[in-house]
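Example 3.2
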Amino acid sequence: MRFHQDQLQVLLVFTKEDSQCNGFYRACEKAGFMCSVTKEPQAALACFLDKHHDIIIIDHRHPRQLDADVLCRTIRASNISENTVIVAVVCRTEKEEPSVLPFVNAGFTRRYFENSSIMACYNELIQLEYGEVRSQLKLRACNSIFIALEKSQEAIEITSEDHIIQYANPAFETTMGYQAGELIGKELAEVPINEKKADLLDTINSYIRIGKEWQGNYCTKKKNGDNIQQHVKIIPVIGQGGLSSLHFILTAALCGRHCVHLSFTDEETGFKRKIRHYVSIIRVCNGSNKAEKIAECVQPEGLSDMQTSNLIKDKRKDSLDVKSLVSRSGNEVTHQRRHSSLARIHSMTIDAPITKVINIINAAQESSPMPVTEALDRVLEILRTTELYSPQFGVKDDDPHANDLVGGLMCDGLRRLSGNEYILSSKNLHQVSSRIINPIALQDIPPRIAKTMEKEEFWDFNIFELEAATHKRPLIYLGLKIFSRFGICEFLNCSESTLRSWLQIIESNYHSYNPYHNSTHAADVLHATAYFLSKERIKQTLDPVDEVAALLAATIHDVDHPGRTNSFLCNAGSKLAILYNDVAVLENHHAALGFQLTIQDDKCNIFKNMEKNDYRMLRQGIVDMVLATEMTKHFEHVNKFVNSVNKPLESLEENKETNKHAETINTMLRTPENRTLIKRMLIKCADVSNPCRSLEFCIEWAARISEEYFCQEEGPEQEPRRGR
């Protein structure tokens, strides 16, 4: 059985946070354990009953402040503490070392002499993990295996090396006619179940004594004396005894194997190994299965697996029956059908939708008057271009600077230079590394910060007040509240602590020195996205997976933004531009890094409990929405949305029919293609929504984006300026 171990939970019970408490807390961070700290016995008991910690460390140095023995006995009185390791921290004195019996009687697993060194605490935790904790984990797994044995329909019996019956499952007792527990502790000689055939017993012993498997049929007697034909398989279980041996016995039993324990020499290593138990799994022969009528199913010693396989193949060649003839003729028919299908495939014509449109226009030109034909020629000229949605701006004499600015935003901005004109940047864009310390829970958010988020459901929410209250880290707090309102944890099947860790690592990779593209902007886009999702028309159109994708995409849509535009990175020949072939450089980087940060650490992997298909659908939606924020595709997304959603919606709403009208609109909006377009427009509107805010907010955002644009004049070697 493969043991799966979740992240270990550690509870520290100290009356004050001294150096020893801090040493264990830092050691938990170093080991990657989840750590909780309490000061009161009642709080410690409540915390344990809630989280079921694997390790509890109790301060035993100050009995007047904390009665550690009473607390330990109280914890041990609960049913869930059976597999919990409890450690007592005691004072290191020069006197004679005290007896360990009082600690054992109180329920402690071991004691730890105070040492506040982080490495000493870390070593203690690692020893506990690979010692007592793993042993308890295996015991819990063995209990599960015993339940499986109890419910198994096959008769299973386990005997010791001295042929004493140690276990017989209910199916075995029923098959042999015994009462529950009647066989335990008896020798096989006392139970009339073995067939008295000397040659058969010698054959069995000759295999199991050297540690090899035997399986075959023999006749045994039930308790009432009736004979019963059984198919039995016996496999030796080798081990040094104890828990490891027990695990191998149960595993062999569940795999349909039988085990015997004798001493023999391993042929490969030459070391002495001991067989400690016999496990017998029995199937009653009912005469319907031909395989059950074989006297002994033993593979000859001198015959290898390859030779056995060849013998089986030769036997199959000699036995030619009607089925083989039918199969052969069927294969010929199938071959002919495949040949015919391939011919039809090669004769098919493949037309794209745009090709069909061009063909329709060509046919319409033949019977059209000259003005219409000339107009259709211009239409065909436009349709045959490869950049249908690329913006084309006419030169405006009155404001050429505005035209250059908008044109630069809407195109990829890559100057087509010769090979030796590219400026390769030596500055590498790198992600911010940060230790994940569990952030504060939603219910524990400070009142000052909570007050700034009271109006987060309204459009006039002040994101700058939250930025100031959280010291430029508003994303985690606003994210916790919005995600809680939309039930993100329930949908992803993840804990709130995992979501907090995820928000922590995402926000730490937003650069606070960016005037505009920082975590405040991400929080603002998340707020706008949540506001749009709360509208009734959007609720009726999108599915829950679409809402979750929109909120997660808004959170990561600008993660690790360097404060430079795509045009700048392409012209500078940055590594990111080279990696993504100058196509949607930043947007591809945001989406990729968002998922990399999520799955690289189990503590912040919000997707770890999702089904594979659900995760794939959610990931597809998130990536599509993040890539939709790239401005060179702006007109393509807008035009598709107008033609596929807006115009059909306007024509449908002109009709005054009520029930049928509403159903038709809902059906049109909920098609997969239209839902994708709606999600793209949703995040695009949220991303550039700051001009639609109140005037003071709009001015602040305009000042920030202007400063960030002008920061690019310092070049790729310079870090953006930190203040205006």
